[in-house]
Amino acid sequence: MQNWFDxxxxxxxxxxxxxxxxxxxxGIIPYKSVDGKYVESPFDGNSWWTGGFWxxxxxxxxxxxxxxxYKAEALRVEELLTRELRTFDLLNHDVGFMYLLSTGxxxxxxxxxxxxxxxxxxxxxxxxxxxxxGFIRAWPRRERAGYAIIDCMMxxxxxxxxxEQTGDPRFAKIARIHADTTIREFLRExxxxxxxxxxxxxxxxxxxxxxxxxxxxxxxxxxxxxxxxYGFTLSGVNTGDQKYIDVARRxxxxxxxNIREDGLxxxxxxxxxxxERIDNIAAACASCGxxxxxxxxxxxxxxxxxxxxxxxxxALNDLCADWSDEAPGILQKxxxxxxxxxxxxxxxxxxxxxxxxxxxxxxRGTDARLWMAKI
Length: 375
Ligand code: GLY
Prior knowledge:
This protein is mainly alpha-helical. It is built from 13 helices and 8 strands.
């Protein structure tokens, strides 16, 4: 009998083979899907932080199937994204997400030299956001010079990659300093994380920890927790430093202890219990982190992480995946931000689909390893 994840993968291929044509016809980088069409990002045009996930889906499917249509669509979007390197103004620390999954994937899977140069350009922009007081600045605008956010743990992979690529340790050193600050200032005793730390940019002292995309100050935004879980796992794998793996284990235990009865994930682990606000992106991302962590730690503990990931993925597949031909995206009930900022609540958002596809590829043994420093 066919595995659930093989069937899901086949369905994802059917959906995104059609989706590649639809997105190309629409001429956009898909951010979410509504009423049978893709919709582009709500803010900042092609500089919006999620632009890499669509080509990331294409590269994962290209790696798994060798179908040229996926590659062609990834390259169409790469052209749009590399133009943003010149406009520069709106780019922020999320150049890791944007370029590791587009130009970085292109270089990894084909050896293309220009794609490597563009990825290095993005890594240099990220390194340029480093404040020597010990953190990578998240966003532009004068009044946000001291803002750093947990999401950045995922962006560090492009810095580890850049050091491997060039033999220059500066990139990885910046990543490690930021990761160490994150352990000290973002993580709580119970393994949960805050979303934002505002540092005094002159002294590096924390002045505030606002709620960000979570429910309230002091709460636990589930996608932030997923970024921490997967991000520290990647720092561990990319540096070989056990300290980061141990932090990832704490983050994982907290996440697992908060999975809902039905296997889905609340948008914030501290949200009111009578509130139905789910974020399937968090679950898909955390599942990828747990599958990687399971391989790293092995044994019984590793089995626990793998089982939790499979339980969440099964719930996504059985309760929230729309496999109909009319729907251009897979996962429903994705929530961009707890207090809806217009970026989407309980809808299909394509970066949830990226992590779901990555997880399916992991289960099938074809993952393109797009976050890894070594090719
Ligand atoms: N990196 C922003 C978010 O997760 O929505």
